[in-house]
Amino acid sequence: MNIAIIIPARYGSTRFPGKPLALINGKAMIDHVYELAQLTMKDYKNIQVIVATDDARIQTHCEGNGYQVLMTSENCKTGSDRVLEAAVKLEDEPDIIINLQGDAPLTPLSALTKVIHGFHVDPDAQVVTPVQQLSWADLDKLRRNKITTPFSGTTALLGKNNRALWFSKTILPAIRKEDNMRTRNDLSPVYQHLGLYGYRFDVLKRFVNLPEGKYEALEGLEQLRLLENDIPITCVEIAHSETVNSGIDSPEDIARAESLLRSSR
User: Half-sphere exposure (CA, 13 Å, Cβ side) for 219?
Assistant: First the structure.
C-alpha cells in the first residue's frame, strides 16, 4: 500500500498571512508539520511526505530544508482541491492520500498512525478520520467556547463499525438525564472530530469533483459532502488521554502552540 501524506500550505491566509512560515519555538510551522508526518515512517513503509503550496516563499523554504514540495494553483478553493492537484502530479500514484493541514502542528502522532492503520485493517475503507470521546470537563469547555465562537469545534455521531452517521458544529447528541450519566460515566457520549482525513485516491478524485452539498454549505463542513453522496467515512478513536488541539488560526495562537509542543514532544 503506497501512501502519500500531502500537506496543503497556503501563504495568503486572511487572518494570518504567511502562517506556514510563522515561527513556533524558533522553527517554522510547516517544519513542525512536516517532521510530524515523517514520524509515521517509523511504523509504516511506502510513505512519502509532500508539501503542496501556491507560494514561492514556502517553496523556497521547503526546498532549502530538503522537503518534497509541489507547486499548485492559486485558484484552489479548499485544501482538498490543493491536495488532489498535488497528488495527480506524483510520479508514482499513491493508493492512499492523507490530508494533513499545514497549520496543524498540534496534531497527535497517534491520529496520523491510526488513520493509516485504519486502511490496513480494512482495505475496503474509503475515507478514514479521527475522533475523540470527550470527558465531561472537555464537553463543558466546548459548550463555553460555543457561546462566543459557535462554529468552533465539530462533533461526530458514530454508528456500527465506527461509521460516521453525521458531523455538526452543533454539539450532538442532545443528552437527557445528563446528571445521572455524569455520576455513572467518566466520559460523555459526545465525540469531537479532528480535521485530518485519509482517502483512497479514487475517492478523493470523486469527492473534489462533486458539487457542494446542501448541509455542507449550511454547516461549513466539507466532510458532509461525502455523507450526502453516500460515501462512507470510517472513524478511528484517539485515546482520551491524548491532547487534541485545533489548528493555528491567528498570531495569538502561537504562544499556546509553543507551550503545548514543548510539553508534548
Answer: 20
Distance CA 35, CA 55 (A): 20
Task: Find the CATH number of the domain harbouring 144.
Answer: 3.90.550.10
H/E segment holding residue 145: helix 136-148
Same domain? 101 vs 116: no
From CA 20, how far away is CA 54, in angstroms rounded? Answer: 12
Residue 83 grid coordinates: 491536495
Q: pTM for this one?
A: 0.91
At 171-227, the pLDDT tens digits run: 999 999 999 999 999 999 999 999 999 999 999 999 999 999 999 999 999 999 999
The answer to whether residues 58 and 21 touch, using CB atoms and an 8 Å cutoff, is yes
Q: What is the DSSP secondary-structure string of 65-101?
A: TT-EEEE--TT--SHHHHHHHHHTT-SS--SEEEE--
* Residue in the block written with cell 522553527: 27
Say how far apart CA 166 and CA 173 lie, in whole Å: 10
